[in-house]
TrEMBL record:
Pfam families: Thioredoxin_4. Residues 60-244 form the Thioredoxin-like fold domain. One of its GO terms (molecular function) is isomerase activity. Keywords: Isomerase, Signal. This is Protein-disulfide isomerase. It comes from the Bacteria.
Length: 250
């Protein structure tokens, strides 16, 4: 059974419970952060800023900043995870201003999927230009309760949507959840969003990448961070920043 099929057949209560259970609550390091000497700032190409540069990686992550940065920060996050939202609200501004903008640190975000609502959101933040992925993800986290409340309030309608054929179910899900209005207010048209959600292959790719990479890299909760390939576990911004500094980001 494929990841997408598992998500489609699951009851609504189970994915929501899974999302909360898989969302880490306390910082828990899997390993020590790599240590390094202080790294000098790296100039961006003329007329550009590192914080405006986004690349889609082979692993379907979205890398922000200098792709050749000596310190590479990777986050596995769920768009429905309150602790991921807290990290985004506390950490993204200083991460960009102090570390990404200097070219010393790159930041790659990959989605771990915790249910159908998570999968729909992960597809929608990918639906526009690649440069919109990070801002839209941050907008979801900044408004997380409002984004998810219709899903909780309309469980019967969501279940009916999930019983539709693959090319229809996520289109209908987003309608019930009110996601079209949320994203339209942020520049993604309803027609564009519907087209993205009616592509079962694209939805399958996101779900499969989440499952495969989580198993391969032992990502058991979110947010989970890697610094230069080393799993440092679930962290908050106050615990992660010293790790970046120890790795050489001064």
């Amino acid at each position: 059974m494929t990841s997408l099929r598992q998500i489609a057949l699951a009851t609504l209560a189970a994915p929501l419970a899974l999302g909360l259970a898989a969302c880490g609550s306390e910082p828990a390091a899997e390993g020590e952060a790599p240590a390094g000497d202080p790294v000098a700032p790296v100039e961006a190409p003329a007329g550009t800023e590192w914080v405006d540069m986004v690349q889609v990686t082979e692993q379907d992550g979205y890398l922000l900043g200098n792709p050749d940065a000596p310190i590479k920060l990777l986050e596995y996050a769920s768009l429905t995870c309150p602790h991921c939202a807290t990290f985004a609200q506390q950490g993204m501004e200083p991460l960009k201003e102090k570390y990404i903008s200097t070219g010393v640190v790159s930041y790659e975000l990959r989605n771990q999927i915790h249910g159908p609502h998570d999968l729909v959101l992960a597809r929608l933040v990918r639906c526009g230009a690649k440069e919109a992925y990070h801002p839209l993800s941050e907008q979801v986290w900044a408004n997380l309760q409002a984004v998810l409340q219709p899903v909780f309030d309309n469980q019967d309608a969501v279940q009916q949507a999930m019983s539709l054929p693959p090319e229809q179910r996520f289109v209908a899900f987003a309608d019930v959840a009110g996601f079209y209005d949320f994203f339209a207010a942020r520049g993604l048209s309803r027609d564009q969003a519907r087209q993205c959600l009616s592509d079962p292959k694209a939805m399958e790719t996101i779900a499969t990448n989440s499952e495969t990479q989580s198993e391969e890299l032992n990502v058991t909760g979110t947010p989970t961070f890697f610094i230069n390939g080393r799993n440092v576990g679930t962290q908050s911004w106050p615990t992660l920043e010293p790790m970046l500094q120890a790795a050489g980001a001064r």
